Task: inverse folding
């Protein structure tokens, strides 16, 4: 698996190089991986469509109506891209929270970020699913590079490890989709990641619902912001692999109470505790 | 982790570690037992025990034991499906010691009375690591084909097994051996770049020191893509 520094100097578009590297390791045919990736994109789209149509509650009843609520609301800001990215992201995570079929990217808790950002931007610009295949390969390659230095799970490194990774992957993918070169793509990922450092994993009751659903809306937008900066030539002052190292270090320093155990933060608020007690009685 | 594991798995929510990973642990357990389980006890450790409920961890493990993948629409209704398949199951909380917080021990039994026990961890994003099989220390992820053999410790067994695998034209990616004591029960776990053929497995099982041979098919997505459906997964008998 490549490092971010290696991806950064790969010929543009970086996704082509990543696909070659991965196929050499796995023995899979590049066309088969591309076709499977297109399947993943269609599965993502299907979860978005289901999620925007329904307001059925989740397992705990804490979420379920947010994506449809936003989708049906008027666009008072005059920012259709923003609204679309947020609604798509929440649609995926609300489907996830009601035990629907989704694509973990890289985890289920952060599954809305990449479809929200990448499919959101693509629909805004009227691009096809086929055009998203190679950017999605790049997203996966960025995830691989991050996972060289840390476990991508809230239990191991807090939410920064999960949503930070998904936002970094999404940022790189959006950057490539809009024509950014390898260097810009990796800097987009790095900018997204360095601005997620420190985020804890404190889900109410330990369920992938609050704050996870709205958090995916926020970080899908975060990814698009990072792409915007990188496409304009802005770069991460700290080299990308060092940023990953910093996230990993902060994850190790994070107390257990703030790593998916539901023993700190939002999970320990009076309302959070009441939900936990109610679910335990069921 | 392959590109398709990073953007994936396609899965029933809500948690890649507590649902998809849990399902894969069940899938590996079913393959290790060799035949469909009729009785299962799942002992859940730490975060699996604490937040499994509401993550569908219990349903996911049962779904895996039934042979369903993480994206199977029947996963949320696995308990009802288990009743139909004559699988009796129970869940307990346990402390497995210094292991990943998302870990479980499965104790499985087949209709013929064969038994198998495994401990596995779900380390994030649907990735798993099996760390114990029948008390032996192992390490495999189910990303590739995994050959497990249980035998009586003796000079040259491992050399003959690796020679057989090489002669079958299959490369070994990783290998881990452990034994209870010199000349006692032993287990070797080989992660392979491809499957061993049925005849090769049958030959291996015929060795007098061999108690048990299992070929675990990939449970991760990229491996499953190469896997195909007609690969023999097991042979031999339980000791």
Result:
């Amino acid at each position: 698996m490549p490092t971010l520094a290696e991806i950064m100097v790969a010929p543009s578009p970086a996704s082509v190089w990543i696909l070659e590297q991965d196929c050499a390791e796995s023995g899979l045919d590049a066309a088969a991986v591309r076709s499977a990736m297109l399947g993943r994109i269609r599965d993502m789209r299907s979860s978005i469509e289901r999620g925007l149509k329904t307001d059925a509650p989740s397992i705990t009843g804490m979420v379920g109506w947010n994506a449809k609520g936003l989708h049906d609301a008027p666009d008072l800001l005059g920012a259709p891209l923003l609204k679309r990215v947020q609604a798509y992201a929440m649609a995926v995570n609300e489907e996830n929270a009601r035990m629907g079929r989704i694509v973990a990217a890289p985890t289920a808790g952060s599954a809305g970020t990449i479809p929200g950002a990448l499919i959101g931007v693509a629909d805004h610009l009227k691009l096809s699913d086929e055009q998203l295949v190679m950017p999605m390969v790049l997203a996966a390659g960025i995830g691989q590079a991050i996972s060289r230095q840390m476990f991508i799970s809230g239990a191991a490194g807090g939410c920064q490890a999960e949503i930070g990774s998904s936002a970094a992957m999404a940022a790189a993918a959006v950057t490539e989709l809009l024509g950014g070169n390898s260097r810009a793509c990796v800097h987009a990922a790095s900018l997204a990641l360095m601005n997620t450092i420190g985020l804890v994993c404190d889900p109410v009751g330990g369920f992938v619902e609050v704050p996870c659903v709205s958090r995916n809306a926020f970080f899908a937008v975060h990814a698009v912001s990072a792409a915007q900066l990188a496409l304009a030539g802005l770069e991460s002052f700290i080299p990308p692999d060092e940023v990953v190292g910093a996230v990993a270090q902060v994850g190790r320093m994070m107390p257990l109470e703030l790593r998916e155990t539901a023993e700190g933060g939002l999970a320990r608020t009076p309302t959070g505790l009441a939900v936990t007690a109610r679910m335990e009685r069921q | 982790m392959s590109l398709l594991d990073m953007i994936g798995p396609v899965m029933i929510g809500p948690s890649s570690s507590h649902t998809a990973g849990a399902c894969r642990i069940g899938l590996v357990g079913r393959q290790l037992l060799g035949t469909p389980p009729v009785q299962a006890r799942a002992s859940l450790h730490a975060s699996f025990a604490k937040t499994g409920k509401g993550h569908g961890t219990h349903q996911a493990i049962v779904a895996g034991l039934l042979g369903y993948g993480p994206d199977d629409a029947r996963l949320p209704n696995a308990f009802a499906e288990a009743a139909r398949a004559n699988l009796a199951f129970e869940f307990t909380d346990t402390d497995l010691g210094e292991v990943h917080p998302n870990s479980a021990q499965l104790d499985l039994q087949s209709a013929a009375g064969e038994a198998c026990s495994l401990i596995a961890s779900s380390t994030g994003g649907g990735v798993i690591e099996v760390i114990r099989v029948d008390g032996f220390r192992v390490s495999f992820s189910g990303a590739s084909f995994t050959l497990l053999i249980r035998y009586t410790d003796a000079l040259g067994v491992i050399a003959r097994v690796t020679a057989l695998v090489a002669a079958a034209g299959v490369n070994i990616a990783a290998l881990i051996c452990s034994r209870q004591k010199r000349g006692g029960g032993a287990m070797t776990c080989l992660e392979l770049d491809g499957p061993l053929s049925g005849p090769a497995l049958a030959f291996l099982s015929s060795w007098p020191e061999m108690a048990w041979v299992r070929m675990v098919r990939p449970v991760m997505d990229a491996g499953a893509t190469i896997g195909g459906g007609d690969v023999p997964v097991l042979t031999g008998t339980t000791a």
Notes: Chain B touches chain A at residues 1-4, 6-17, 19-20, 47, 50-51, 53-56, 71, 73, 75-76, 100-102, 123-126, 193, 221-222, 225-226 (CB under 8 Å). Chain B has a mean pLDDT of 91. Chain B has two domains: 1-133, 143-239.
